[in-house]
Amino acid sequence: MSLPVRAAVGEAEAMNAYVRDIMTTGVVTVRPDTSYQTVAAMLRQHRVSGFPVTGDDGKVAGVVTETDLLALVAGRHHRGHRVAAGQAIAGDLMSHPAVTVGPDDPVTTAALLMRKRRLQRLPVVNRDGELVGIVSRSDVLSVFQRGDEEIRREVTQDVIADGFFTDPARFTVTVHNGIVTLEGVPGSEVLGAGIVGQVEHLEGVVAVRDRFTYPVPSAPSVPSAPSDPGL
Fold this sequence. Notes:
The protein is an alpha+beta fold. Helix content is about 30%, strand content about 20%. The chain has a 3-stranded mixed β-sheet, with helices on one face. Strand 3 and strand 4 form a beta hairpin.
């Protein structure tokens, strides 16, 4: 079986990169009739979390992942029916139809699909639906990788100062490997949530940790009962 070969991005601009620039070819696949035990062994052997499931025609029928196997082991009903572990095959466990992208799709399209559908990988298919590669989250993030200091500058200047007209000195912004941590007192939950939401969509941001301190709302005062002058 051929080893995966990843295409080089070279000097392609991140926003102009295409899936073909970052996808891995020579993808390891399984057939719909591959047994559960074989799929589990292959996951361990290749140290991946899932495989495309392809038929004799090379077209992608679905995707089977560690999550699918764990659901089977846990005895959960799988897609409306229960399958015995000893009899399960990839066709029983796979997610279908598979969510795919084309080699000529922009990398931004793959990124949006992964985020929206919460996927770790996407099979890449040609116009006939045949598998030509696979792209993972790490492949996508490598294209959009930016320096931590550059991200920090954009958060403080473009988002906080220019976007929300707020003094960045009120906040502590730290960035490590694309993970942004926000600290400080925004003054209101609306402002804090707005800043967090904008930062989450910045290019190169992997995750945002909201460490803002919000004012504790004071308990409403209870008016004292009027005195009864007749007592």
